[in-house]
Specification:
This protein has 111 residues and is α+β, with helices and mostly antiparallel strands. It has helices spanning 2-13, 83-101; strands spanning 16-19, 23-27, 32-36, 40-49, 55-63, 69-76, 108-110. It contains two helices and seven strands, in the order αββββββαβ. The strands form two sheets. Strands 6-5-4-7 form a four-stranded mixed beta sheet, with helices on one face. Strands 1-2-3 form a three-stranded antiparallel beta sheet, with helices on one face. It is globular.
Length: 111
């Protein structure tokens, strides 16, 4: 169980979301996936709470033809991005998505 928890922490620590003209590149230690801009219906930020009351915010994309995807490297929690850094990164991602698709929706924030 400890090995699984450690592997999850390492994977989250080295995971990234990169914005390109073609779409978002979601990368972790074990996988890499490109999601084209036209498949993304919405960008969402939601608050999550762990078993012992630890809270964090994470960014996800809602897709036209698949379940939502959590964006690696885009979460605000203890030891990672500050609230301001997280909001800045989500804002950049939103502007890039709007520019590439011509859409005008804002980020959907879920409690």
């Amino acid at each position: 169980m400890l090995v699984l928890a450690l592997a999850t922490l390492v994977n989250h620590g080295w995971s990234t979301t990169t914005l390109t003209p073609e779409g978002m590149v979601l990368a972790s230690l074990t996988s890499r996936r490109t999601v084209p801009w036209n498949r993304i219906n919405r960008i969402e930020v939601r608050r999550r709470t762990g078993r012992y009351g630890t809270a964090w915010m994470e960014a996800r994309i809602l897709l036209a033809d698949a379940p939502p995807l959590r964006l690696p490297g885009l979460q605000q929690a203890w030891g990672s991005q500050s609230k301001e850094e997280f909001q800045d990164h989500v804002g950049v991602m939103l502007r890039y998505w709007q520019q590439e698709t011509g859409r005008t929706e804002a980020v959907l924030v879920r409690p």
